[in-house]
Specification:
The chain has 381 residues and is mainly alpha-helical. It has 14 helices and 6 strands. Helices cover 52% and strands 5% of the residues.
Length: 381
């Protein structure tokens, strides 16, 4: 397992705020550095390493990276409020620790800018945030991870939890509208108007179960539950029920031989499907953290640790001191821009999800692997 630390440190050594080697989308498309959920995932993993090891070099890396993007007035480089993009909130999760530790008001101001987006984010008629302005009336599982833990932490610190009912309603909407009764899994997306070409005309849901989106949602649940602490027992109980039901549903589709999960969750054995690293890592983290904080059965910690070990053995390849974390889905979505692989229509079908490029050393795989690894460190220190 120690090779995971070596792998992370090699990635950090190669990265600068303007050129992080973990953002494969930016590298492949030659995009300039910008505030992004991808960097956010990676920085959260660095924060978790700092909290788990107390090694100040992790905090120093985190602060240096964020300081490149945030000026003294809390303005954020490359952040576009008008896009109303739920992904943009994710990187803000590290600001709470930076503010608490340094007392620097620029971090509070940056949090306020992101909270202003939450206050203005367009909503479905049922009260859920649109995933982005360009996806009207759509809820994606990804968005719950990107926004809700930040939203709750801000509410707890600065608003005395005033908008907790809104947060809970958004989880309730997903449970009511996006959960498949037959499998217990959640569909990746939902269009409340049923107008998107990929949406089922009766349910409004997309047609497939994408493991990374289920991982996003599982992490959203466990991180939000953790932030509720013991102060909101009724709300915590409701989310615990959702989390336990989701995990039980997911474990049905775990590959018996490897303990990992397929890109399209319930389609093992179909041509083109593969054991995908990012979603499997997110599930491992959720199992381990959920068991640690007492909201999943204790035995699930060991299930998560087994997944982590298998990823380390099968997916983290070391050759000539070069570390490669493989089999990470680059990106997947619904509608909007074309797919990046051979299947251009982002229609939510099996064929679409297996067509998106498979990459190495991308933060969407590295970060949840580190999340899970920090749970392992906490259990073994």
């Amino acid at each position: 397992m120690e090779k995971i630390t070596v792998f992370l440190e090699s990635i950090l050594k190669q990265s600068t705020p303007s050129q992080p080697v973990w953002n494969q989308e930016a590298i492949l498309e030659k995009k300039p550095a910008s505030w992004s959920y991808i960097d956010g995932c990676m920085l959260i993993s660095v924060l978790f390493m700092y909290e788990s090891t107390k090694n100040e070099t992790y905090f120093d890396f985190l602060k240096q990276f964020i300081d490149y993007y945030i000026d003294d007035e809390g303005n954020i480089l490359g952040y576009d409020l008008d896009a109303m993009n739920s992904d943009s909130i994710n990187e803000g999760k590290v600001l709470f620790t930076l503010y608490k530790k340094t007392k620097d008001e620029k971090y509070r101001k940056a949090m306020d800018h992101l909270y202003a987006q939450i206050q203005q984010q367009p909503r479905t008629n049922s009260g859920s945030f649109w995933h982005k302005k360009i996806y009207p009336n759509q809820i994606w599982l990804d968005g719950l991870y990107m926004i809700q833990p930040f939203y709750l932490e801000y509410e707890r610190l600065f608003n005395n939890g005033r908008n907790l009912p809104d947060i809970m309603q958004q989880f309730a909407n997903v449970n009511q509208k996006m959960r498949d009764e037959k499998t217990g899994l959640y569909f990746h997306g939902y269009d409340e108007t049923r107008q998107a070409f990929w949406a089922d005309p009766h349910t409004g849901c997309s047609s497939s179960f994408w493991t990374r989106s289920l991982g996003w949602y599982a992490m959203a649940l466990v991180d939000t539950i953790d932030l509720l602490k013991e102060d909101y027992p009724e709300e915590k109980e409701l989310l615990m029920i959702d989390l336990n039901e989701l995990i039980e549903a997911l474990l049905v589709y775990e590959d018996i031989e490897t303990s990992l999960f397929y890109q399209v969750t319930n389609q093992a054995g179909r041509v083109g499907n593969y054991l995908e690293t990012s979603g499997s890592s997110a599930i491992a983290y959720t199992l381990m953290k959920g068991a640690r904080i007492g909201v999943l059965p204790k035995s699930f910690y060991y299930k998560g640790e087994e997944i982590l070990r298998k990823i380390s053995e099968m997916k983290l390849i070391v050759t000539d001191e070069t570390y490669v974390l493989k089999d990470i889905c680059l990106v997947a979505g619904l509608g909007g821009m074309p797919g990046k692989g051979s299947y251009k229509l982002r229609d939510g079908t099996y064929e679409y999800y297996i067509s998106e490029p498979i990459v190495e050393n991308d933060a969407k795989g590295i970060a949840p692997l580190i999340y899970a690894y920090t749970e392992y460190l906490k259990n073994n220190n």
